[in-house]
Design a protein that fits this description.
With 134 residues, this protein is mainly beta. The chain has one domain (2-113): Beta Complex (Metal Binding Protein, Guanine Nucleotide Exchange Factor, Chain A). Helices cover 5% and strands 39% of the residues. It contains 1 helix and 10 strands, in the order E-E-E-H-E-E-E-E-E-E-E. A hairpin with a 5-residue loop joins strand 7 (67-72) and strand 8 (78-82). The longest helix has 7 residues, at 28-34. The protein is globular, with a radius of gyration of 14 Å. The two termini are 28 Å apart.
Length: 134
């Protein structure tokens, strides 16, 4: 089991299944939501994700017609997002995990809108927008 939490510790969650599909997202929304050059995200089946504290602190909003983002209203930490087209997957922010999830992001997406001050220096595949369906 993996555990994660926000910066203030008010929102806490557990993951009882595999974490998959790790990715570095460079889109402008992820940059703004995380205050950084990119977001490190991964998927978890909704049935394996459980809030254990702070549900009353969670706030969410529809950042675009295809994405809902959830964050702690006390400290502002981004916790997860849900895409209505895939409601059975929760996209967690890897930085909120307490320990190693056992996976590594496999590629960069939306590099066409990456921060101009950030240089990608690894050898992972890069996609201008979303990668093609596999």
């Amino acid at each position: 089991m993996l555990e994660g939490k926000c910066l203030c510790g008010g929102v806490r969650y557990e993951i009882t299944g595999p974490v998959t599909g790790g990715v570095y997202c460079h889109c402008s929304q992820c940059r703004r939501a995380n205050g950084s050059a990119f977001a490190a995200n991964a998927g978890v089946a909704k049935e394996h994700f459980r809030l254990v504290a702070g549900e009353d602190l969670l706030r969410g909003f529809e950042s675009s017609p295809d994405k809902f983002r959830w964050f702690c209203s006390r400290c502002g930490s981004p916790i997860y997002s849900v895409i209505p087209a895939d409601p059975n997957t929760v996209r967690i922010r890897l930085g909120t995990l307490d320990r190693d999830p056992g996976i590594r992001p496999g590629f960069h997406i939306f590099v066409g809108s990456k921060a101009p001050w950030h240089e990608i220096t690894d050898a992972l595949p890069q996609f201008r927008e979303r990668p093609p369906k596999r």
